[in-house]
Amino acid sequence: MAGRYALAILAIGAIGLLAALPLGRLIGAALFSDGTFDLAPLVARVTRGATQRAMFNTLDTAIFGAMLAVVIGAPFAFLVALTDMPARRLQGFMLLLPLMIAPQVTALAYMQLLGPSSALLGTFGLAPAPGTPNPLLGRNGIIALFGVQHAPIVFITLRAGLAALPRDYVEAARAAGAGPWRTLLTVIVPLLRPYFIAALALAFVSGVGNFGIPAFLGMPVGYLTLATLIYQQLASSGPSMLSQVAMLSLLIAAIAIAGIALQVASQSKSGFTIVRGLPAHLSLGRWRWPVSAAGFVLIGAMLVLPMAALVSTSLVPTYGVRLNFDTLTLDNYVEVLVRQAATVRAFTNSFYLSGLAALILACLAVPISLGLARFPHRQNRALHGLLDLPYALPGIVLAIACILLFLRPLPVVGSLYATPWIILVAYLMRFAALALRPVDAALAQMPPQFVEAAAAAGAGGARRLVTIIVPLAAPAAMAGALLVFMSAFNELTVSALLWSSRNETLGVILFSLDEAGLSAQASAIAVVTVMVVVALLLLLDRMASRLPAGVLPWR
Asked: Which of 99, 145, 194, 269 is the most exposed place for a label (fewest CB within 10 A)?
């Protein structure tokens, strides 16, 4: 009994430290002046011209980017889940890659592809004329890349809806003589309406908090969103602007929470009350291979060509040089991996901080999940929702909260500000929910007979935990740790505001190199990070047979 209470207390304490404390500190800084509730400063801040322009730009790009993500992701979800299209799993895997690749890498790759100094297009004489502005800079480019970056979110959400599709309705429509495509349009699509709304809301929230793409495509031309406005103001004025940017962060959080509430409300209406079965199966007939080829062409245009442009730029001596046998060089890789102290340090910092965060969360995931399971269903959902907030909310909101928390010295440890530990703590806060999901799924599917048999044999709670539960949940905990490592390894949104001298991360150093005009070296770093992410995704795929259903969305 004491063990049950201990796990519940551990779960409450972890959620309090990782979620409630930072968000509470942010709200306090934004809404309370000298301990007194005061909305006047927030209202004054929101009504400023710069804030209103940034808010409009944020909503504009997030809304239209989400709509484009639905246009891209929805057809793939239907084709992969419902049809006999060849190479469905491969296309699903490839479509998910943009979600795992950092937004700043995506932005850099597309800029290298379409700019007048494109090494790839220059090789074939197709590059725009020198001096031509990059067509991606500004609003339209941000929307286009939001669509590409967030299409996997739509794909995952709609595929989950299709997996829960009530087969009874589909079979009834087919028995009544409806063809496969009429069944799709008149039965399947209407049933999935809540999932469409949820997918649109999730893509919108991701766009609101996206920093990497607006930083690369908007800041150079003065097109600011709320995230980049916060970055500019804090970078130029330092901690003296904390109360001001806390208000902006709260504004971003409010917009994001509205999107999250829409997503939760829509999916709460999607609970089918009839028997579920296997998803409907629609035959493409003679169109199987042409449709599959069209899917690969689209994925190639969205993913392969930009990555090829990134690789091409990394292989030339300097940005703007055409790639051929005479200019081909690996010097940029040698420079960033061996010679340049700042980039070598960034690789070390990112590996160390991401690996440590993944290890800590992997160790905490099983006891926290067991502790949360001790609570009744409604409280369990509320606690999970609170833990999800730092991951669901924009990373820049969490970064501001961490600065507010750790700027002043703490008992025993002192101030964490301007140290690598503030980044580590931010990673723990942001990715705790990501580490917990595979473990929750594993524990939910664990046969209760194992634990019951051990209890009947006299094994205490601690022994059952160590000898039965942990070994069975270990593969899921490892999968969660790999997801945390991938997400933290080259992220920029959090560390852009938390890094300090000698504590640079890869996302920060990539951004800095591109701003300094060293795009070839930035491309080399980006290529290495993509290779690490793809290798880890392939490792996760190999682990699929030992993981609970639903952990790997491409399967």
From this structure: 269
Residues in the chain: 555
Residue 242's φ and ψ, nearest 5 degrees, are -60, -45
Give, as one character, the DSSP assignment of residue 206: H
Assign 319 to helix, strand or coil: coil
CA 359, chain centre distance (Å):
19
Confidence of residue 548 (pLDDT cuts 50, 70, 90): low
CA 72, 527, 520: angle at the middle one, nearest 5?
110
In a 3-state reduction of DSSP, which class is residue 37? strand
User: Average pLDDT in the 47-75 region?
Assistant: 93
Where is pLDDT greater, at 250 or 549?
A: 250
* Cβ–Cβ < 8 Å for 301, 514: no
Pairing of strands 36-37, 32-33: antiparallel
Task: Please say whether the beta carbons of 492 and 426 come within 8 A.
Answer: no
Q: For residue 306, which of 156, 121, 443, 442 has the smallest C-alpha distance?
A: 121
Q: Match 């201990």 to its residue by tokens.
A: 6
Strand-pair partners of 410: 414
- What's the CA gap between 114 and 133, in Å, rounded? 10
**389-420: buried (b, 16+ CB within 10 Å) or exposed (e) per residue?**
bbbbbbbbbbbbbbbbbbeeeeeeeeebbebb
pLDDT at 273: 46
Q: What is the pLDDT of residue 478?
A: 87
Confidence band, pLDDT 50/70/90 cuts, at residue 449 = low
Strand partners, 36: 33
- What is the predicted pLDDT for the residue at 69? 95
Helix (H, G, I), strand (E, B) or coil at 461: helix
Separation between Cα atoms, residue 113 and residue 120, nearest integer Å: 7
